[in-house]
Write a structure and sequence with these properties.
Blueprint (H helix, E strand, L loop, with lengths): L7 H11 L4 E7 L3 E6 H17 L7 E5 L4 H12 L3 E5 L5 H11 L3 E4 L5 H5 L8 E3 L10 E2 H5 L15 E8 L5 E7 H15 L6 E4 L6 H14 L2 E4 L6 H8 L3 E4 L1 H14 L2 H9 L3 H13 L6 E4 L6 H10 L3 E5 L9 E2 L12 E2 L4 E4 L4 E5 L6 E2 L3 H7 L6 E9 L5 E6 L4 E2 L5 E2 L1 H8 L5 E7 L7 E6 L1 H8 L3 H17 L10 E3 L19 H17 L4 E3 L2
Parallel strand pairs: 1-11, 3-4, 3-5, 5-6, 6-7, 10-11, 12-13, 13-14, 25-26, 26-27
Antiparallel strand pairs: 1-2, 8-9, 9-19, 14-15, 15-16, 17-18, 18-20, 20-21, 22-23, 24-25
Length: 555
């Protein structure tokens, strides 16, 4: 099957030759400048960099890291790494120094590209002193071993390297339940299978435009932007910053867009800040005028040209999907994992079924295991976890199905509905995985906290539910609430300093109940039943999320 799959570099060379002068990437530069790179420009820069990388005489398949926010040269560096016969290892651009060090050491990275970053000083300490760094054109101030201009001084390679289908292309690190990152290994065949199938499914082509703003190191953006651009020929516009995001969106006027639930909610809140919800809802109900109003709202967001809008990483509230539908935009849900290139299930236009995600993507087999776990198999299934055959064997069955860790069910038409999680690890609304146990352990060191459960599935940021110790409860009864509150605020600040951005707790909630075996909160071995905790306090989550205090009391 792999022989029939068009591989990423082969498709890139075809596009480079077919429309060399077609705009490929549009990159904002400081000073309100724009840089437009053609397919020929991208190809030449990647080829020059590949020649420089070859000159390092590294062993074939060496791991080369990329630490940068989204930018044109993130993708060019990735192409160069592949052309030189190596493996790219992308890192999130907001990791702590400890997390950076962990990934670089585990992957045994031989080089690291450093690009656009908000807090390079906070990350730099995680880069081993003997690891050479390469500064991309958009880079933070500071010393680097080499600069992009030095790579561009090399002549471009004259050959078209074509790695084998089964050759390792990239290692994408994702957090495990213990908080230790796992390196998901994907071959060129995996990437090619998912990208070619997905672009064909939606008919994405050379006239399409996409805005790149979610982290390129995440599998969703990697597939939807980088790989999809190679396979479809779409033009990629890059967002400059959160502050300029709306302007970036209006400039790109994307025809396809991928977002996480938090983004779709932000768009809605932005609209409501300019027009009260009640008035907009009234106008949308009017015949003829409602359609004009909907178009105007979408144009104000830069979404008026969208043909396909997708949302993934976490469930989207049905009310929000319906709101966009009334504006004239159908947002389709996507389901997938890093372990299968994010390619598993997707909604089809006009086939929305309330409460269900969508149907199998082409080429994906699905089965529901006896315990209700959703298991999938396709050409996009990972090669395994880097240096972890034991975890790989636990995750991929003997007959090649990927254990997703999600419980679910399918209807007769192939639509999938998720009904719960088998794993404790959860996903925020930003699509980031959070392992609760290590965070809980950090909070439990406080002498007045007896039990703690970190929750956050589908939330923007997690929060911790805490049960006070008997001493703590006694202090409250004696009127020392203020002192305890200040102490817990300090604890929260300290814990958050040591966490990656997506793991940081928005608040502590001090619950009134005492969790015990008798009332069903604890197992006989005194482990917290997370499902019981979430089921008991779940109705309060929405209100607690809206709260302003970092320490809340559940009376």
């Amino acid at each position: 099957m792999a022989d029939a799959i068009r591989l990423p570099l082969q498709v890139f060379y075809q596009r480079e030759a077919r429309h060399p002068n077609k705009p490929y990437m549009v990159q904002p530069l400081p000073g309100d400048q724009l840089q437009t790179l053609s397919w020929a420009d991208v190809g030449e820069q990647a080829r020059r960099s590949a020649n420089w990388l070859r000159g390092r005489e590294l062993p074939p398949g060496s791991r080369i890291a990329i630490i940068s926010k989204n930018c044109a040269h993130w993708i060019i560096a990735d192409l160069a790494i592949w052309m030189a016969g190596h493996v790219s290892v992308p890192l999130y651009p907001n990791l702590t120094a400890d997390s950076v060090r962990q990934v670089l050491q585990h992957s045994e990275a031989a080089l690291v590209f450093i690009g656009k970053l908000d807090d390079w000083p906070g990350m730099a300490a995680g880069v081993p002193a003997d690891l050479p760094t390469i500064g991309l054109p958009l880079r933070p101030p500071g010393p680097f071993s080499y600069l992009w201009d030095e790579l561009q001084a090399c002549a471009p390679i004259q050959d078209d390297p074509t790695p084998a289908a089964e050759q390792l292309a990239t290692i994408i690190y994702t957090s495990g339940t213990t908080g230790t990152p796992k390196g998901v290994m994907h071959s060129f065949s995996n990437l090619g299978f998912a990208a070619s199938q997905a672009t064909e499914l939606f008919g994405v082509g050379e006239d399409d435009r996409v805005l790149s703003y979610l982290p390129l190191c995440h599998v969703a953006e990697r597939m939807f932007v980088e790989l999809a651009s190679i396979y479809s020929g779409q033009t990629v516009f890059f967002a400059e910053s959160l502050e300029t995001f709306l302007d970036d969106l209006k400039r790109a006027r994307p025809t396809v867009i991928f977002g996480v639930p938090r983004i779709w909610t932000k768009f809605q809140m932005g609209v409501y800040s300019k027009m009260p919800a009640a008035r907009l809802d009234f106008l949308l109900k009017l015949p003829l005028l409602g359609r004009l109003v909907g178009n105007k709202v979408l144009a104000g967001l830069g979404l008026d040209a969208v043909r396909y809008a997708l949302s993934g990483a976490a469930p989207v509230p049905e009310a929000l999907l319906n709101w966009y539908k009334r504006l004239g935009l159908e947002v389709l849900e996507v389901y997938g994992m890093t372990e299968n290139c994010g390619y598993s299930h997707v909604g089809r236009p006009g086939q929305f079924k309330q409460g269900w995600i969508g149907q199998n993507s082409p080429g994906v087999e699905v089965r529901i295991a006896e315990d209700g776990e959703v298991q999938v198999r396709s050409g996009a299934t990972m090669q395994g976890y880097y240096k972890d055959p034991q975890k790989t064997a636990q995750t991929i069955t003997a007959d090649g199905f990927l254990r997703t860790g999600d419980k679910g069910e399918q209807d007769s038409e192939g639509n999938l509905r998720l009904t719960g999680r088998i794993k404790e690890i959860f996903k925020t609304s930003k699509g980031k995985y959070v392992a609760p146990a290590p965070i809980e352990n950090r909070l439990a060191v406080h002498s007045r906290i007896e039990q703690v459960c970190v929750v956050g599935d589908g939330m923007a940021q997690p929060m911790a539910l805490c049960v006070l110790s008997e001493v703590g409860r006694q202090e409250i009864a004696n009127g020392s609430r203020g002192d305890l509150e200040n102490s817990l605020k300090s604890l929260l600040e300290q814990v958050n300093l040591d966490l990656d951005k997506h793991e940081r707790l928005q608040r502590l909630v001090l619950v009134k109940d005492v969790w015990a075996v008798d009332n069903g909160f604890l197992t006989p071995t005194l482990k917290i039943k997370r499902t019981v905790v979430e089921g008991t306090y779940g109705p309060h989550f929405a209100g607690w999320v809206e709260g302003r205090e970092t320490v809340l009391w559940h009376e």
